[in-house]
């Protein structure tokens, strides 16, 4: 064989499946990286516990959507192969094997590492109620009687009572029970079988309305102990089935298919149709069963038969089911020394509290970097627009918002103040559908014009347009972002946004909303590029331009940061560009179907994934363009769904100062050697072998930078107050 890199891109067919990774297995590799944080002994103990909880909630969603979709394909006889050359059946087999391995690693981390360390640090999880002391037993029995018993609904199964509907993701206790033999006593049920010892199935749902973690009385030495609610219920099962002997009790939990399909063309009222589909989600096909390791075979057989679960979809769990309870444990007070010091988002220098935000935007475009900087300016932008008598209209897209959203309140107030308010609420935002229906109704009630998205497409772009009457005439102010208008997740997700009154971008923003509300497609765009009609072509053009520059010996480089990369056309274009000599550096948090070390690409492609304290969520795209570099940000990843089935926006960073700031974000992430893991040629990820003294953590560097910037500005303001008393008066006024 010759040198694998000796071929040119023209002689290699980069469409072959061997050059691609399977999407589902790549996602599982991502969850392995999250689990790696839970196993990292250099991370504070409670932070490790939090990451283990995240792996569990991630896996739930993966099963409800991705595994459910694969099962639907298999059941429908669908045999088309994915970009990695795997049929749905082959994918399902590989996913099952990989997931069982992942779950084993989760519980090894929980049992062998986290539990002992928690006990060493003064917090014991009492795993089994049999281990309770006499004093503890009295406490939990009283707790059960006062708080739990009134909420429970015990359900027996016999010829007159069918197997109950088990809700999706609910934690349940299954039991085998037999009727007590009591001579001379009349029974309401089973009169003919009093003398026969028949084993029956019974179950009770562990109520989600009650805290799953129950704190036991402190030990004399001050150490704290907790027990899980299901253990308290299990101990008291005999009180729920008074006429029965409890033969055995074991917890179980099921995952159901939660992915619903809508016939949007047929739906007369999209809102009502989605409300109807949401009810079905609780009772979709059971696709995964978790049971406690060591479960009685007879009990398991009943559950398996009634839920029609395959053997390979059963997970025997050596510990408590559903590790998401660890996030509640994280919130226990008194263990702050075992957590990261909380980071407080810093103020944006260009937008002081109480300033006229429209005046500041007129002075210059403003870059926002969350969560390192506060989300406050975005909220203030809407709030001030709602109150400002010069503002005529507010238009906004909403994909996911927080539970008590100040933005929703401001939009409602704007409508009540007589402004023209148009809001596109995406009802199909997965697992936020119910929340968004509530907000849509509230906004309509306040007088806003609410649009429920476009038929067949999800509206995922993040854009706000404020139209204001000023002395010079009508001026448009625009916010464009990579993340949702969610003030809660803005403290946890890294995102970027721009506030601008650039006239050309304002024209484009108007065209976006006219397209969303009236199907009016503009003849052309000034600066924005939208999916599903123009964005993919734009990205392919930009990648191919770098390829041509490299062929012409001009500077050529691509740096792209995103959540996921799995679009085959984009990946093929990247391979071809790399083969021509373009240096490509990708920062991909999650799914990556591209491979490194592919023949002909001359090792020009590097992929890293950063999993840290904050969730990496921003999308940034840099193209060197023969020395005349271009920088873009977007709401879209390089995925077929983003580029072909969603409304997304790509927007340029035009201001030179902002361009430097965004490039700095990429530079710092490319220098990360502590949290970054690099994609290897075999599909695995590994950290760089760097001496401890040279380790760099991008997220920590950003925190330090923004704190230093805020401290510097505060110092300047303090000095100004000392030397210029009139400055203090002007600030107060």
Provide structural commentary.
With 733 residues, this protein is an alpha/beta fold. It has five domains: 15-127 and 324-339, Methane Monooxygenase Hydroxylase, Chain G, domain 1, CATH 1.20.58; 135-264 and 284-318, Polyphosphate kinase middle domain (polyphosphate kinase like, 2-Layer Sandwich); 357-527, Endonuclease Chain A (Endonuclease, Chain A, 2-Layer Sandwich), CATH 3.30.870; 531-696, Endonuclease, Chain A (2-Layer Sandwich); 700-733. It is built from 19 helices and 27 strands. The strands form four sheets. Strands 14, 18, 19, 20, 21, 23, 24, 25, 26 and 27 form a ten-stranded mixed beta sheet that branches. Strands 10, 11, 12, 13, 15, 16, 17 and 22 form an eight-stranded mixed beta sheet that branches. Helix 15 links the parallel strand 19 and strand 20. The longest helix is centred in the first third of the chain and has 33 residues, at 88-120. The protein starts with 22 loop residues before the first helix and ends with a helix. 40% of the residues are buried. Residues 1-9, 191-196 and 262-268 have low confidence and may be disordered.
In short:
It is built from 19 helices and 27 strands. The chain has 733 residues and is an alpha/beta fold.
Q: What key attributes describe this structure?
A:
733 residues, alpha/beta, Methane Monooxygenase Hydroxylase, Chain G, domain 1, polyphosphate kinase like, Endonuclease, Chain A, 5 domains, 10-stranded mixed sheet, 8-stranded mixed sheet, 21% strand, globular, disordered N terminus
């Amino acid at each position: 064989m010759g040198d694998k890199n000796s071929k040119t891109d023209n002689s290699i067919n980069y469409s072959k499946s061997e050059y691609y990774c399977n999407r589902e297995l790549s996602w599982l590799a991502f969850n392995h990286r999250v689990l790696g944080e839970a196993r990292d002994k250099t991370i504070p103990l409670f932070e490790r516990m939090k990451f283990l909880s995240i792996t569990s909630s991630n896996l739930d969603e993966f099963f409800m959507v991705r595994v459910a979709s694969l099962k639907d394909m298999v059941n429908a006889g669908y045999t088309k192969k994915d970009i990695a050359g795997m049929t749905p059946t082959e994918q399902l087999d590989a996913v099952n094997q990989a997931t069982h391995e992942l779950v084993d690693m989760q519980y090894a981390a929980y049992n062998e590492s986290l539990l002992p360390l928690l006990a060493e640090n003064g917090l014991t999880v009492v795993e089994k109620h049999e281990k309770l002391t006499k004093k503890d037993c009295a406490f939990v029995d009283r707790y059960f009687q006062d708080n739990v018993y009134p909420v429970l609904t015990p359900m027996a199964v016999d010829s007159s009572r069918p197997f109950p509907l088990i809700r999706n993701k609910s934690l349940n206790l299954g039991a085998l029970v037999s009727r007590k033999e009591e001579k001379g006593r009349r029974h309401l049920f089973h009169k003919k079988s009093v003398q026969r010892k028949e084993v029956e199935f019974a179950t009770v749902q562990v109520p989600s309305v009650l805290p799953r973690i129950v704190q036991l009385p402190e030990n004399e030495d001050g150490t704290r102990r907790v027990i899980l609610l299901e253990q308290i219920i299990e101990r008291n099962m005999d009180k729920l089935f008074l006429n029965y002997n409890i033969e055995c009790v074991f917890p179980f939990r099921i995952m159901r298919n939660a992915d619903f399909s809508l016939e949007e063309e047929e739906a007369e009222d999209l809102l009502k149709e989605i409300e109807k589909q949401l009810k079905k989600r609780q009772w979709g096909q059971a696709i995964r069963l978790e049971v406690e390791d060591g479960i009685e075979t007879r009990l398991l057989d009943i559950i398996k038969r009634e839920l029609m679960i395959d053997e390979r979809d059963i997970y025997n769990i050596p510990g408590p089911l559903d590790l998401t309870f660890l996030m509640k444990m994280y919130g226990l007070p008194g263990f702050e020394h075992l957590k990261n010091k909380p980071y407080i988002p810093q103020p944006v220098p260009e937008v002081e509290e109480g300033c006229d935000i429209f005046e500041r935007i007129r002075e210059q475009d403003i870059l926002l970097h969350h969560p390192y900087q506060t989300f406050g300016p975005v909220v203030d932008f809407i709030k001030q627009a709602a109150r400002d008598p010069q503002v005529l209209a507010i238009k906004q897209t909403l994909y996911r918002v927080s539970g008590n959203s100040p933005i929703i309140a401001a939009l409602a107030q704007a409508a009540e103040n007589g402004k023209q308010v148009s809001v596109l609420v995406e009802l199909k935002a997965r697992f936020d559908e119910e929340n968004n229906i509530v907000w849509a109704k509230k906004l309509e009630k306040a007088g806003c014009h609410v649009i429920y998205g476009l038929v067949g497409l999800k509206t995922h772009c993040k854009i706000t347009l404020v139209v204001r009457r000023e002395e010079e005439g009508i001026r448009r102010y625009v916010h464009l972002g990579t993340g949702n208008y969610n003030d809660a997740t803005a403290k946890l997700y890294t995102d970027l946004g721009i506030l601008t009154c650039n006239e050309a971008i304002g024209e484009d923003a108007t065209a976006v909303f006219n397209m969303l509300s009236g199907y009016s497609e503009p003849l052309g765009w000034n600066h924005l590029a939208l999916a599903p009609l123009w964005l993919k072509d734009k990205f392919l053009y930009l990648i191919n331009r770098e390829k041509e520059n490299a062929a012409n010996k001009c500077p050529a480089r691509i740096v792209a940061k995103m959540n996921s990369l799995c679009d085959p056309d984009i990946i093929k274009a990247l391979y071809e560009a790399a083969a021509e000599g373009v240096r490509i550096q990708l920062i991909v948090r999650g799914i990556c179907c591209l491979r490194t070390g592919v023949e002909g690409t001359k090792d020009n492609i590097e992929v890293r994934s950063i999993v840290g304290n904050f969730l990496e969520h921003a999308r940034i795209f840099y193209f060197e363009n023969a020395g005349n570099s271009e920088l873009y940000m977007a709401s879209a990843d390089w995925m077929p769904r983003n580029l072909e089935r969603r409304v997304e926006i790509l927007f340029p960073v035009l201001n030179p100062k902002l361009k430097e700031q965004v490039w700095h974000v990429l530079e710092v992430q490319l220098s990360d050697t502590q949290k970054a893991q690099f994609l290897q040629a075999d599909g695995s990820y590994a950290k760089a072998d760097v001496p401890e003294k040279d380790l760099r953590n991008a997220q920590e560097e950003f925190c330090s930078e923004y704190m230093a910037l805020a401290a510097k500005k505060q110092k300047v303001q303090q000095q100004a107050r000392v030397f210029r008393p009139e400055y203090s008066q002007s600030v107060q006024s």
